[in-house]
Write a structure and sequence with these properties.
Elements (H helix, E strand, L loop, with lengths): L26 E6 L4 E6 L12 E5 L1 E3 L3 E5 L5 E9 L4 E7 L9 E4 L4 E8 L2 E7 L4 H8 L16 H4 L7 E4 L11 H9 L3 E7 L22 E5 L1 H13 L3 E4 L1 H14 L5 E5 L14 E5 L6 H10 L1 H13 L10 E5 L6
Parallel strand pairs: 1-17, 3-12, 3-14, 4-11, 14-16
Antiparallel strand pairs: 1-2, 5-6, 5-8, 6-7, 7-10, 8-9, 9-10, 12-13, 13-15, 16-17
Helix pairs in contact: 6-7
């Protein structure tokens, strides 16, 4: 497979710059992978696709105010995008400056917090924040919400609410698990009323999710690592559903990566905490997830490769062409797609 296999033409005006006026008011393209059939719908219809005994898995990560600005001793400006919080005073982060900072150097964030460059780990810098406050405290007071690069405007007050899921509870992500942005409390209640079990895992989305694939041969790409946790309760719920004929419905590619990552690493569904760099491309054998709710993804992205593996490359190519033709809204604040890989017709 080459990168061009995952390209498609996308008019710029279809990239959603703002969320819909009301949460949950998005459209939803419903795709049945085995048959290749799809139809247009609305996200409010999602609960009708849930059956008694299903397990619906949500990612409860919460987006942190990970973007910071500062000044070097020379007076030059720089930007810091926190990738991961290591402990109370240390982070891994991208640093954008005219010249990359060297280990041992220091700079000052807007707000007065001094930062020491400890070292470098690949594309990220290991930074120590010299502050009485914890990293989360510093980010809360001085950071900005890091909207994705394709949203060409600064984050506003409304993004503080709309770029978080209603069930976000565990701070640590630098990007939202966007399939979950469609859910309201009322829609969650309707899903539960259908007889499904609602479960939460955690996968802290890192900045690497936006890094372009730079190798034409897809097999040569190295996936970024992201922290995850699957609790014993979730693992047991999934096992029980599988035994009784229920399905696992993953809300977002992040939930898919966490669940399938556990299976890939341990060979069984179990409680686990760690990091995953699972790279899912066509040919991958899914062992856990039966349905996936997701948004529309960037051309040539690892996320598009994942959904192509799940729904079928040719099916996804036709579905995306249909979405463009029907003027669906794309990417983080855009519309949704529900993909079923099982034999049941939609």
């Amino acid at each position: 497979m080459t990168l061009d296999d995952f390209d498609y033409p996308l008019p710029q005006h279809l990239i959603a710059q703002t969320p819909p006026a009301e949460r949950g008011a998005s459209r939803m393209l419903v795709v049945h992978g085995p048959s290749g059939r799809f139809r247009d719908g609305w996200f409010r219809e999602f609960p009708q696709f849930v059956e008694p005994g299903d397990v619906v898995v949500f990612n409860n990560t919460k987006v942190i105010r990970a973007r910071l600005h500062g000044t070097k001793p020379t007076g030059g400006r720089l930007e810091v995008l926190v990738e991961r919080i290591l402990d109370e005073h240390h982070v891994l982060a991208q640093v954008s400056a005219s010249h990359s900072p060297q280990p041992g150097s220091r700079f000052v964030l807007d707000g007065g917090v001094e930062v020491e460059v400890i070292g470098r780990e690949g594309m990220f810098f290991h930074l120590r924040l010299h502050s009485r406050e914890s990293v989360l405290g510093v980010l809360s007071r001085h950071g900005e919400l890091p909207l994705p690069p394709y949203i060409q405007r600064p984050a506003g007050a409304s993004d503080e609410e709309r770029y978080q899921t209603v069930y976000a509870s565990r701070p640590g992500a630098v990007a939202a698990p966007t399939a979950g942005l469609h859910f309201t409390d009322a829609i969650l209640s309707r899903v539960a009323e259908r007889g499904a079990r609602l479960c939460e895992i955690t996968l802290h989305v890192g900045a690497g999710t936006f890094h372009p694939v730079r190798t034409n041969d897809v097999a040569e790409h190295r996936m970024h690592r992201e922290q995850y946790e699957v609790t014993p309760e979730v693992a047991q719920s999934i096992l029980a559903a599988k035994r009784s004929g229920g399905r696992v419905i993953a809300i977002g590619t992040t939930s898919v990566r966490a669940l399938e990552g556990v299976m890939a690493q341990y060979g069984e569904m179990r409680a686990a905490t760690g990091e995953t760099d699972l790279f899912i491309t066509p040919g991958f054998e899914f062992q856990v997830v039966d349905l996936m709710l997701t948004n529309f993804h960037l051309p040539k992205s690892t996320l598009l490769m994942l959904v192509s593996a799940f729904g079928g490359t040719d099916v996804m190519r036709r579905a995306y062409a249909h979405a463009v033709e029907q003027a669906y809204r794309f990417f983080s604040y855009g519309d949704a797609m529900l993909i079923e890989r099982g034999p049941r017709a939609i």
